[in-house]
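2024-03-11 09:14:02 INFO queue: dequeued item 4-hydroxy-2-oxoglutarate aldolase @ 2-dehydro-3-deoxyphosphogluconate aldolase, len=210
2024-03-11 09:14:02 INFO validating residues
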Amino acid sequence: MTKSEIISQLLTQKLVVVIRGNTEEEAYKASKACIAGGITTIEIAYSNNKASQVIEHLTNDYINSKNVIVGAGTVLDAVTARMAILAGAKFIVSPAFSAETAKICNLYAIPYLPGCMTLTEITTALEYSCELVKLFPGGTIGQDFISSIKAPLPQVKVMVTGGVNSGNAKEWFQAGASAIGIGGEFNKLAARGEFEKISTLANEYCTKLD
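2024-03-11 09:14:37 INFO prediction written
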């Protein structure tokens, strides 16, 4: 799958679940539960020190599935980005823009989604060939920010993360988001071992946004 094909699939699926997990097993089971519920784009956060193992395991599980995309989040540097890519990550997400991370992702033809809060950060990301940028934290920036940035930059596509939940997800799309990153609700359930409820919640998101 090419870089543009991955971006196209992310934009088609629209929902990205950010899975953290306190352990490798918790993150793995939570990811599987999300996929079973219908959300098939999973971002494994490197706040979990077993993230590479989780990415590799999931990549192997779904190697023949065209719908499941496993990426890496909370990637703070190029070294971590390369580790994630070698483990099988199909996209890299950072809380802030990193030029070195952008370069390593371009080298491996992997989409890089950096967190941005200002027009300067967004235009810098575009200059480094980022086709989709992450607006983070969404709850702080607010929905009106999307229309504000699209006035001078109508070509920019954004994924909103932070402050997005089942109650306001549809509103973010109406405001102009191309995709949303969700996770808080899912990770709370995972910490309690309530994986069946994760599948139910994932299905609810998919149903609401159909």
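2024-03-11 09:14:37 INFO annotate: Residues 31 and 42 are 7 Å apart (CA to CA).
2024-03-11 09:14:38 INFO item closed
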